Structures are given as structure tokens and as C-alpha cells.
Amino acid sequence: MKIALITGTSKGIGLETALAFGRAGYKVFATMRNPAMASDFKQIIKSESLDIHISEMDVDSDASVKKCIDTAVQNHGQIDVLVNNAGIERHGSIEELPLEDFKAIMETNYFGVLRCTKALLPQMRKNRSGCIINVASVSGHKSNSPLGAYAASKFALEAISEALAGEVKPFNIKVAIVEPGIINTQMANDISVDEKSIYPHSKRLAGLFSASLQNPTAPTLVADKILEIAESNTWKLRHPVGPDAEPFIQWRKSMTDEEWVDWNAANDDDWYEAVQNTFGLDAR
């Protein structure tokens, strides 16, 4: 039986990924900061008799990561698949978002991934086997306000994943980056308007997310892709997921840097019209 360790499983993509792996016959360590809040998750595990073990782990903490992973390995043997899913989002203009939020995002979305990866790499390298799947975002390809801080963490995750893939392939360790578009998660639904902001971008992006979520994409789509990557023989590095993921990425690629800046700096009417014409979404 293969063993998977998945971070950030309290809700959304992480929870659905843990269930997908459990239903596929994996022994799963589903980690989260506060297992006491996982009563519904525990009920599903029980009702379906899944081999899923909910474990406490805070990816922001060296000690917490070491304790959780050491315990899993000592008691159950090698971890075959690591899914680095835990992530947080804070949004706001560069000027207005507190520096503490920038630090918190990087601590979880970037350094959290490094902690878990570094904890398992020696074992995977020794066994010459393993799969590491990092959940990034289309925001790892494009950066616009008010998601600058979030995008910075995902750009960093993309970069470190690409470097890691080249380091560990000779040891038969596969690295993959999953890049969801707008998915119907709490994080996406929490994108809101900052009425006090001196910049218009908060209202614009909230409108874009709201319009997209009128036809929601379920987190199970991302979970199924993560399982598919783990089960396949593909060495493909990047995997956009969701109906808008590849269009968003190609949209950015279609513009020069200056055109992208100009579009984000446009007045409201021009910005909303461009979104309507490009994606058929009324973000007003």
C-alpha cells in the first residue's frame, strides 16, 4: 500500500485530495493545524472506512513539521507521495497591506512547502522513489493587484519547484506543480471589496471572482488531477487545472509586460470591458 502525506486538509482542495487518495486505496496522513475542527471529515472517513489518519501539523513550524513527519515515517514506513497544499491568502494593495501579511503568506505558501519537502527528501532520495506535488496557482504566472503578495509566494513556489525537479529526477523523484484557476473554495469566496482602499483593484478583482463563481468549479477537479499525477508515469512539470486556468495563463502570455501593466492601470470602464470581451464575465 502506498502512503501519501497531504498538507492543509481541513477544507477545500486539501480535504478533497485526502479523500481522493483514500478512496484510491492509499494510506493517507491528512495534516492540518487544528484536527479538533475536522468532525465532518472524520465522519466521512468512518462512514467510508478509509485509511486516512488526521494528524496535527503546522507547516509554519519547524518543530511541528518534524514531529508529524518523523512519527508517520517511524510508525508506517516511507512516504511515497507528498502533496504540499497548505496555503493562505491575503489581499490588498502593496501600499495598504500590512507587512505582517506579506510575511505570513511567504511563511506558509513558500517556506511551509520547503519545510515539508526537506523533511522527506532524504528518505525519498535514499529509496530512489517519490512524488512531490506542489499546489501553486495561475497567480504563479501573472501578478496583479490586489493579489500581489499572494502571487509573489506562488511565483516563488513555481521557481523552487522547477529547480527541485532538476535536482531530484536522477533519484527517480517526480516533482509536479498544480496550477488551479478560480476554484469554488473558501479562499476564493473570501476575495472581497476593501471599501477603504484608495485603489480600484480590490473592487475589480472581487467582481471577477464573484462572476466566475456563478458557474463554480469544484475542488474535486483539482483533487482528481493531483491523484492522476501521482498515479501516472508522466514527468510533466506544470499542470493548469480548471476551465479558466490555461486561458488565464495564455492571456498573460499574449501581452507584453507593458501591455499587462497598462491593462491593470486602465480606468474602470476599459478594465471591465476587457474582462467581458476576453472571458465573457460581467465583473461589474
Main attributes of the structure:
alpha/beta, globular, 11 helices, seven-stranded parallel β-sheet, 284 residues, 7 strands, Rossmann fold
So, CATH architecture? 3-Layer(aba) Sandwich
Strand order of the largest sheet: 3-2-1-4-5-6-7
Please indicate the percent range of residues in DSSP E strands (runs of 2 or more).
5-15%
Principal-axes shape call: globular
Main beta-sheet strand count, sense and barrel state: 7 strands, parallel
Q: Which structural category do the helix and sheet elements fall into?
A: alpha/beta
Pfam family, one: adh_short
Family: Belongs to the short-chain dehydrogenases/reductases (SDR) family.
Protein name: SDR family oxidoreductase
Organism: Aequorivita lipolytica
In short:
The chain is built from eleven helices and seven strands.
Describe this structure in words.
This protein has helices spanning 12-23, 39-48, 62-76, 99-127, 148-168, 186-189, 201-212, 219-231, 245-253, 257-264, 268-279; strands spanning 3-6, 27-32, 52-56, 81-84, 130-135, 173-180, 238-241. It has a 7-stranded parallel sheet, with helices on both faces. Helix 1 crosses helix 8, helix 3 runs parallel beside helix 4 (99-127) and helix 4 packs parallel to helix 5 (148-168). By secondary structure, the protein is an alpha/beta fold. It has a single domain (3-186, 217-245), classed as Rossmann fold (3-Layer(aba) Sandwich), CATH 3.40.50. The longest helix is centred in the middle third of the chain and has 29 residues, at 99-127. Helix 5 links the parallel strand 5 (130-135) and strand 6. Helix content is 51%, strand content 13%.
